[in-house]
Amino acid sequence: MNTLNSNKTGGYDIEESLGFLLSKCHQRAFQIFREKLSSHNLTPPQFSMLAFLWKKDEQSQIQLGTAMEMDRTTISGIIDRLENQGLVNRAPHPEDRRVFMISLTEAGRRLEHSVSCLSLKANTEIASNLSAQEKESLVILLKKMRGGSQ
């Protein structure tokens, strides 16, 4: 792929730009996830936090921020909304009261199966134009672009 095209003004073709294409793919994926999760009154970032907690319950707010690659203010807002919905608890760390530990409530645990199924459906829809091999390659390439195999 070459974003330089001699037929275009200035030699640059926005429609071939990785940044532009990734942005458009993100917008489409976010919209699909939002539609799928709306029945549970969840946003994609709230789902992501729950998914990290389903993977490993009781994490510090800092750990979740690092895992989700989000700043403290954004993470705090997501936790506030999940806490207001009764899906997570926030409690001071027993040894360091400056640190808050986030854990799932029973209601948060009960959501795992149904919401994970919605996420799988969203992923299937997002990748509907790709073969299984293309999807696998895309995941590898995106992880590589992101800077590792997280």
Automatic annotation (TrEMBL):
A family per Pfam: MarR
GO molecular function: DNA binding; DNA-binding transcription factor activity
Source organism phylogeny: Bacteria, Bacillati, Bacillota, Negativicutes, Selenomonadales
Keywords: DNA-binding, Transcription, Transcription regulation
Protein name: Transcriptional regulator, MarR family
Species in which this protein is naturally found: Sporomusa malonica
Database matches in InterPro entries: HTH_MarR-typ, Tscrpt_reg_MarR-type_CS, WH-like_DNA-bd_sf, WH_DNA-bd_sf
Residue ranges occupied by any HTH marR-type domain in the UniProt entry: 15-147
Keyword Lyase: no
Domain of life: Bacteria
